[in-house]
Amino acid sequence: RGYYIRARAVDLCVQDFLMKTHSHPRTQILSLGAGFDSLYFRLKDKGLLHRSVVYEVDFPNVACQKASLIKRMEELLALVGDTAGEGSGAITFSGENYKLLGVDLSELPELERALEEAELDNEIPTLFIAEVVLTYMETCRSDALIEWAAEHFSQACFLLYEQMCPGDAFGQVMQEHFSQRNTALRSLPRYPDGQAQQRRFLAKGWTECSVMDMNDFFTCCTPEDEQQRVQALEPFDEYEEWHLKCSHYFVLTASKGMEPSWTPLLPSVTAPRCDGPVRMAGSVTAAACAPCSEIPGLRRYGHSSVLVKPKVILTTGGFGDERGRHCRLQDFHLLSKRSGCWKAGCVKKENPAESWDGRLYHTVSCLSNGLALVVGGRTSPSSTGLGMLWLKFTNTCSVWDTDDITVEFRNLQPAAEPTALRWRHSVTEITFKGEKYLFMYGGRSAVEPVLGDWCFLRIQELSCAVIPVEGPVPEGRHSHSACSWKGGVLIAGGLGAAEQPLGSVFFLREFGHGFQWQAVGTQPPLIPRYSHTAHVHDGKLLLVGGVWLHSSCVPGITVLDLMTGLCLDYTINTESLEWPLMLHNHSSVFLPDEKELVLIGGGGNCFSFGTHLNPEPVSLSLSSILTQS
């Protein structure tokens, strides 16, 4: 998907240019740093280059390699035309309406001479294309190129596709990737976001300029039927990585002297999210739980963590680092706090021959001091979801010590088993007429990308109870949060059917002979998000991390006052950490007495930049913001 959206943005803008200039007797396209791009051949094959000449520029060695490939393929030679032949000087290959030039873009005088030799006409409509090219050049040189194009061409358009937002965790991983390859992103410090790039082009002589990140492009400039086609192509469960990748790339179009105006990025629909910068009420500081760094199994995502005893946290499942390899994790881990310090350890298996099934995106509910229920989860997104599993813990000491805990697996086939075949769902304890139930809601399955149903599970026999529910039914969702409150459950955020984050909050409360859904109003409106965690403390809903579609910042802690609806956002200060903190696909546990929030795991695949897993648990003290809120 990440490469698809880039190609679609370029194709849309190029074809829009050709359509808008169709009445002109001649037009031209100049692709800067074209590499082995097949754009010319695709346009020619579609019959879209009647009056247009395509010029491609790249380093001489790249241009020579590309020319050799073209000469070896009859289909490509046929598209280039009968006049195809050897070039001279900087012209490596020349065809009927195709010219391939070998020249260093950063040497502007050389580029000018090569283009003049190739008979580029600066008086006819010209489209410049730069796909992830200019950012590798020294900024002063790329600025000069942008300004030169505006000054020397009377009717010009510019299409730019590049990275943005270097400051957050994903951006740091992205920058580190390119630095390790000796291809640093040099433009990012001066032009870190779309607005800065827009100001750049307007200052360099372009009269019109539009920019949008790739989340907006996919949502607003891609027809709904095409979105649905792409979403249905393959089993897909990497929503966080997809949205993060798209929030770190932008497409920009600029023009001057064009009649009518060239505006290919006019959205066909409005992006369903809040506009403008996110206003932060303050910040909280993250501190690493340093003693836990010796346990590599805590580097994971898609897992579940639950408080099984006061100050004792059990973490199960997920995908991560197990003994130096990335895999679906088998080991269970405990974090216990004593004398103000956290200690980590692995949980022993009662029967060493038993193995965890490697599930992720499951839930774990602690029902007693020694018993927990696992519900749902998956191995592969193309396989059927997994059912229910009891975890029985045995402790050889009166105090829960990480060295003295064993676990026994007990597979179940209860009456509610088919309902549990889902993942990215929630299971929350509720009370109805004095009796405790587990409320299973939402998620997704191998068949349904979004579920909006629910089930009241009787805890003893794990069968579904029929309890009436009235009120406005929430939109189906997965990757949401769910918290017990006043005997009911609070559902917040999640990802909806159109793969768009949701900003709604619902309270399911006991009402009459059953339950009632109630929408919870927020002011200002809650920013839509998903893949976050949540906790309730003293009438306040705490939303932790997640993914939203704002490019300007990442979610930290949101505090929602459930009495007044007041919603305040706080950043997480990570200066004390020596590594990027990714707050999606994580778990969190809140210790109310200390007002301490413990973040475990999180991260995932970062497009083509590698996998980042938060290396150790992180502690946040929320005393200041809970008092302030």
What does this structure look like?
It is built from twelve helices and 40 strands. By secondary structure, it is α+β, with helices and mostly antiparallel strands. It folds into two domains: 1-256, Vaccinia Virus protein VP39 (Rossmann fold, 3-Layer(aba) Sandwich); 280-626, Neuraminidase, CATH 2.120.10. It has a nine-stranded mixed beta sheet with strand order 3-4-5-2-1-6-7-9-8, with helices on both faces. An eight-stranded mixed beta sheet has the order 32-33-34-35-10-40-37-36. The longest helix is centred in the first third of the chain and has 19 residues, at 2-20. The model has no long low-confidence stretch (mean pLDDT 91).
